[in-house]
């Protein structure tokens, strides 16, 4: 069946409205997020226990993760871009396929992990060729809340990466 001209015009009008509303990929590729955007209003981004100097020659503090004070769900299902540092979890022969994105160098390994709402579990189909531990990157992809536990920390968010680039 051949569509009539009014049907095509209606489709084009709907697509135009979608693009102008910011819901289409043409008008908005991603939402730029910062780490403070992941913390509920009124909560500190970095808890007081992690602020200040860390004694690196002291006892191992990596297991002392502060409790999370909730998550924000405004960006569930959205394409976002978030900067951070790579803490590799899974490798393939060609690169990292899963990692924890953390807001500062040393998080989860040398100092206590941040609260779960300051950690993002990133997966990627195309392995990321990391140049080393704690590489600064921008990660763009589908974002959402997803409770995950690893041996390093509890994690409150997940991101399915479409694009990973050096920061």
Automatic annotation (TrEMBL):
Taxonomic superkingdom: Bacteria
InterPro entries the record matches: DUF3299
UniProt cross-references to Pfam families, sorted A to Z: DUF3299 (PF11736)
Name of the protein in its database record: DUF3299 domain-containing protein
Species for this entry: Roseobacter ponti
